[in-house]
Amino acid sequence: MSLVNGNVGGGSGEVSGYNCAQVNALRDVINNTAQQSSQNIVERLHNEIIVPMSTVWYAPEAVEFFNGFANTVKATGEAITKAFDNYRAAVEDAGQYWAENTHGEAPSLPAIDNVDLTLNVSDIQPDNAGNVTIDEGGANQIAGRLAEVEDGIKSDLENLANNLDAESAFIGHGQSDALRECFVTVSGELHKIFKYLTDGEESLQGQINKAVQKYQEMSSDVSSAFNNTTGE
Question: Most distant CA pair in the chain: distance in Å?
């Protein structure tokens, strides 16, 4: 018996139901999506923020700052793990609802593995051949592109979520489409976690802008001090 577009054989009625084994299989799909998401996120943050910043800001405080940023990113992994695991639980609940009402086998989906967002910030150096400097224009350019980085994270998450195929797990009446759309929505919402890139004075964008301003002011202070020296 083959299932084609919700119809069995030559019948005209839509087929609806669930498949316990296929519901269980969705756990690995969700988990793999979560893990691939983490890889994409740290690659974007490293390639689009850390590497460019490593060529424009050389200072011990830069090393300290980005070590702290890496800790912030790592903590974000907990929120992402929770979001994907909540979705996993919702899928399990849907399967169990079918099982309870059909006296069928109930699915069991193990919890999602922890999402590890370990960001490599070793490119950031305390000096450049002894020079402790910030390239003001370069740093401002990177700060100005952080919204694009956030949008890229969102796009990556949504594209991965679009790969969810639940048609063999939940059969008929748009169940699989609803599950996929929900997954895309959950994944897309996760980019809001990364608002610390752009929102407010304490965001990464704000902190980079502050660093540029501080270096400008210190340079002006030193120049003024020399100009006011009489030599007496």
Answer: 105
User: pLDDT for 154-180, tens place per residue?
Assistant: 999 999 988 888 999 999 999 999 999
- In 3D space, the residue among 171, 184, 214 whose CA is nearest the CA of residue 8 turns out to be 171
- Cross-strand partners of 3: 8
Q: What angle do CA 169, 174, 175 make, to 5 degrees?
A: 40
Residue 133, helix vs strand vs coil: strand
Contacts of 29 (CB under 8 A, 6+ apart): 163, 164, 165
- Please name which of 132, 153, 149, 147 lies closest in space to residue 61, comparing C-alpha atoms: 132
Name the average pLDDT for the chain.
88
For 29-54, the pLDDT digits (tens) are: 999 999 999 999 999 999 999 999 99
Q: Of the candidates 64, 49, 61, which has an alpha carbon nearest to the alpha carbon of residue 133?
A: 61
Global pTM value: 0.84
pLDDT at 185 over 70: yes
Helix (H) or strand (E) holding 76: helix 60-102
d(CA 66, CA 53): 10
> In this structure, are strands 3-4 and 57-58 parallel, antiparallel, or unpaired?
unpaired
The answer to whether 76 and 204 have CB atoms below 8 angstroms apart is no
Which contiguous run of DSSP H or E holds residue 77? Answer: helix 60-102
